[in-house]
Specification:
It holds the Pfam family Ferritin. Iron-storage protein. Fe cation 1 binds at residues 18, 51, 54, 128. This protein is mainly α. Helices cover 77% and strands 0% of the residues. The chain is built from five helices and no strands.
Length: 164
């Protein structure tokens, strides 16, 4: 099915964002593992995998619309040096992705591409209700517990990768 160029271009821009987020999450996950925060590593690795799943969905849609997926482009990422800065950096990136998804959804409505809109709504739900929400929780925990207690809490682990 031949898609509209403006929609395909927008999907490619979203793809760049998802792949860039996966790169940043991967770098931070590896930092957490190096620091001995294995449970935090597991969670961020999970987030990286979800970003790659989002990228896969975008690639599939671009191909369906007879476009060419741009899997080479990346946004500038911010690999932070400290745990709080890494979480803040990841959250800021999620906010950018969320804003871009909302704008893309508006475009799809304007272009009457409701199937692409449906896919983007799923990505938005993951980004808002899972990724950004979890990162916001971590910053609140650091604020409430202090960094030392938070690190101890994360070093002790969590029973479920989706738990607080």
């Amino acid at each position: 099915m031949k898609g509209k160029k403006v929609v395909i271009d927008t999907l490619n821009a979203l793809l760049t964002g998802e792949l860039s987020a996966a790169d940043q999450y991967n770098a931070h996950a590896e930092m957490y593992r190096d620091w001995g925060l294995h449970n935090l590593y597991e969670r961020m690795h999970h987030e990286m995998e979800e970003e790659l799943e989002h990228a896969k969905m975008l690639i599939e849609r671009i191909l369906f619309l007879e476009g060419v997926p741009d899997t080479a482009s990346r946004e500038k990422i911010n690999v932070a040096a400290t745990l709080p800065d890494a979480i803040k950096s990841d959250l800021e990136y999620e906010y950018v992705i969320i804003n871009n998804l909302k704008n893309a959804i508006k475009l799809c409505e304007k272009e009457m591409d409701y199937q692409t809109r449906k896919i983007l709504l799923k990505l938005l739900e993951d980004s808002e209700e899972d990724h950004a929400y979890w990162l916001e929780q971590q910053l609140r925990l650091i604020e409430m517990m202090g960094l030392k207690n938070y690190v101890q809490f994360r070093a002790a682990g969590e029973p479920n990768p989706h738990a607080v």
